Structures are given as C-alpha cells and as structure tokens.
Amino acid sequence: MNNFIDIIIPRGGKSLVKKVQDLSTVPIIGHLEGICHSYVDKDANPKIADKIIHNAKLRNTAICGATETILLHEKIIKKFGNRILKNLEKNGCKIIGDNKIRKTYGKKIKKATNKDWSKEYLSPIVSVKSVKNINEAISHINKYGTMHTDCIITQNKRSAKKFLNEVKSSIAMHNTSTQFADGQEFGFGGEVGISTNILPPRGPVGLNQLVSYKYQVTSKGVIRK
C-alpha cells in the first residue's frame, strides 16, 4: 500500500504499535508507552511539589502523560517527600517504593523491583525512588523512561536548565504537571498523539506536524550560472 499511504500512526496497546513498527514498510510515527517521571529536587518548593505531583499522578491516571515514577532527592524525603506520598495515598494511590523510601515512609508499602521502573500503570499506582542528586535522576529517566514526558520540580534555575537539556524526553518540563503532555494544550489543535521518535515529528503532534512542505518556484527564464 506504499503508493496510497504516506504514514501510519498506530494507536493502541504496546504490542499493537510494536507489531506495526516491525512489519510495516510505510513510515511510522510511534506512540508507545508513557513512562513519565516527576523528579523532586533538593531545591523544590514543598507546596509547589505537592500540588504538581498530585495533579501529575491523579488528575487522570489513564493517559500517557500521567506520572508513573516519582524520584525524590534524598535530602527532602523526610522534610516533605513523605508528606507528598501520604497525600497521594490518602487520595487512593498505591505507593511502591525502593528500600530507602520504605524505611523512611513509616507505613508498610510494597518493595519496588527493576520491573516497576519500566512499568506504565495507567492506574492509581506509582513507583517511588530516592536519588542522591540530579545526575542520578537524569540517568534513571534516560535508562527507564520512554522519551515521553518528564519533569523536574525545583527553584534552582541552573538545575532546571541541566535537567531540561540532558533528559532525552520529547517533552521536558520544569515545575509543570506532566498531564499537560497533550497537543491541544500545546496549541496544536486536536491531538494525534505524542511522538517519541527521535526525528521529526516529535512530541505533541497535530495537523501541522503531519504535513510536509511544498516549494513552488516560477521565473521568466532564470538559469543558474
């Protein structure tokens, strides 16, 4: 069907998208998993962090822009990190944490495994990991994320710039809910999806991101010398 179809945008589960990518000879815009992260930095504002994390996870748990993993800088876990997690749990979210989170949280929660860092729950469940610094947060996102949407919550502009530049995400955010990952929210009109491709189109995709250019040239006999 190459003569009739310019591009395929498969929408559905991971297995469907992967199958189309493997078999199609027509170009594909892949919209795979949204394993999105929200990283709470040591210089985060507690009120802003709590508000953003709550929205990023629970506003709508079934969309690709929902945060699936929370990364907490180890210096803020006891200060206000646990408070953020308790607020989520109070609103029906199940917490899965690494050893440090489980030790400091004060309530019995399930232990996170490596499989959890690669899981898109699409439900009120979230994986939580402690990190020593921003470099560890970025490394974790680039290893386990799907280049979809990832956020840093911080008042430190230098840290924010480093995060935005170094995560491989198609949408990198600062002090913003990952739930804004949507073509309509970006002003692109009705959303086709979020492209995690490295080459264009990438990120939120609307009609303008799907069309190509056409150059029309006219003259009165101009030739190139």
Give the neighbour order of strands across the main sheet.
4-3-5-2-1-6-7
Name the poorly predicted regions. Answer: none
Total domain modules:
2
Largest sheet: 7 strands, parallel
Q: Into which percent range does the helicity of residues fall?
A: 25-40%
- According to CATH, the homologous superfamily of the largest domain is Aldehyde Dehydrogenase, Chain A, domain 2
Structural class: alpha/beta
Count of alpha/pi helices: 8
Distance between the termini: 42 Å
What can you tell me about this protein's structure?
The chain is α/β, with parallel strands linked by helices. Helix content is 32%, strand content 18%. Helix 2 (46-58) packs parallel to helix 3 (77-90). Strands 4-3-5-2-1-6-7 form a seven-stranded parallel β-sheet, with helices on both faces. A two-stranded antiparallel sheet has the order 8-9.
Write the layout of secondary structure elements.
Layout: H1 14-23, E1 36-40, H2 46-58, E2 67-73, H3 77-90, E3 94-97, H4 99-105, E4 110-111, H5 114-117, E5 125-131, H6 134-144, E6 149-153, H7 157-166, E7 171-174, E8 193-195, E9 203-205, H8 207-210
Parallel strand pairs: 1-2, 1-6, 2-5, 3-4, 3-5, 6-7
Antiparallel strand pairs: 8-9
